[in-house]
Amino acid sequence: MRAMRALKSIDDLEEAGLAAAARHAELSDVAARYAIAITPAMAALIDPADPNDPIARQFVPDAAELVRLPEEREDPIGDGAHSPVEGIVHRYPDRVLLKAVHVCPVYCRFCFRREMVGPQGLGTLASQAMDKAFAYIADHPEIWEVILTGGDPLVLSPRRLASIMERLAAIDHVKIVRFHTRVPVVEAERVDEALIAALKSSGKTTYLALHANHPRELTTDARAACARLVDAGIVMVSQSVLLKGVNDDPDTLAALMRAFVENRIKPYYLHHPDLAPGTSHFRLTIEEGQALVASLRGRVSGLCQPTYILDIPGGHGKTVVSASTIEDNGGGCYTVSDFHGETHAYPPVVTVKD
Ligand code: SF4
């Protein structure tokens, strides 16, 4: 049966049959540290009889989150090192993140900003801070793209989103506004006419990067919400995190990427999991990730290929970490691998006949 409201506490999870009462104490320790929320749509997708359910793994807290490794960091991708004013992260020359809100409809157990999001997190940007953030964008003509992230910017009301978009509309050098969100999947009913009108109200080109990690998340309701967005002229791309026990097998990854493409969402980034505190149970090695990404080559259409990305800890930005398929032998000669893993000389060796 579908819950009527989001599950936000250990008691809620126990009542819904998603947490065992015997684990109450340890899960309460997790809840005291990291926010919990599971929307009715995501709770309905969980099979409580499956201890390895990939949806539960993403949203139901686990005692493993209390294990913190020395290499894990509170700000794993180094937002703080590039924040000139509150709410802005300016890491790359032509784009900024605008973190207007630090609330999400669901709280992912592997979240890279888990120390900042949630009811005890950084909250919503106050109006004075918002003024300073817009002044910063207006004062930097090199900023071509503004990426609204957080938190999930689509938890803001259409009225507040429209007001942000109107302020961006007034800044000529901003041409692209991108939203990073899970809402079309986890709370599809929010994607209504008012929200779509707000997303388009700046007159800029609007992109929406949808975060989803398992093909089951693309429910009928989620697919309909994405169709409403794309039909309205919003360009959609995907973002997924490669997660142990969720999508770390070739069939699941292929099905996820195909589901995106079938719904007119171009696979964009597949993130290697960040070094967020208490998330080591989600991390695979880069070598394992490379093998999984390589398994997509040839197996599924070129449209379905995401870029495998690592955010370098310390705020050094993103780098592509797919295994190389080319080896430089010098003198303009290379060895290239095909999708079966077989190697070939490029240019091909020419045999001269007498
Ligand atoms: S929706 Fe994004 S910001 Fe929110 S908890 Fe999940 S990963 Fe973190």
Task: Give a structural overview.
- This protein is 28% helix and 19% strand.
- It is built from eleven helices and twelve strands.
- The strands form two sheets. It has a nine-stranded mixed beta sheet with strand order 1-2-3-4-5-6-7-8-9. Strands 10-11-12 form a three-stranded antiparallel beta sheet, with no helix packed on it.
- Strand 11 (333-337) and strand 12 form a beta hairpin.
- The protein is globular.
- Bound molecules: iron/sulfur cluster.
- The site of iron/sulfur cluster has 10 residues, from loops.
Question: What's the layout of helices and strands?
Answer:
Elements: H1 10-15, H2 24-33, H3 40-45, H4 54-59, E1 88-92, E2 95-99, H5 127-138, E3 145-149, H6 158-169, E4 176-181, H7 183-186, H8 193-200, E5 205-211, H9 220-231, E6 235-241, H10 250-262, E7 265-271, H11 286-296, E8 307-312, E9 317-320, E10 326-330, E11 333-337, E12 343-346
Parallel strand pairs: 2-3, 3-4, 4-5, 5-6, 6-7, 7-8
Antiparallel strand pairs: 1-2, 8-9, 10-11, 11-12
The protein binds iron/sulfur cluster (SF4).
Strand fraction band? Answer: 15-25%
* Secondary-structure element order, N to C: HHHHEEHEHEHHEHEHEHEEEEE
Question: What would you call the structural class?
Answer: alpha/beta
Distance between the termini: 79 Å
Total beta-strand segments: 12
What is the approximate shape? globular
The description of the largest β-sheet is: 9 strands, mixed
Please tally the helical runs, counting DSSP H or I stretches of 4 or more residues.
Answer: 11
Range of helix content: 25-40%
Low-confidence stretches: none
The average pLDDT is: 95
Strand order of the largest sheet: 1-2-3-4-5-6-7-8-9
What small molecules are bound in this structure? iron/sulfur cluster
Evaluate the radius of gyration.
Answer: 22 Å
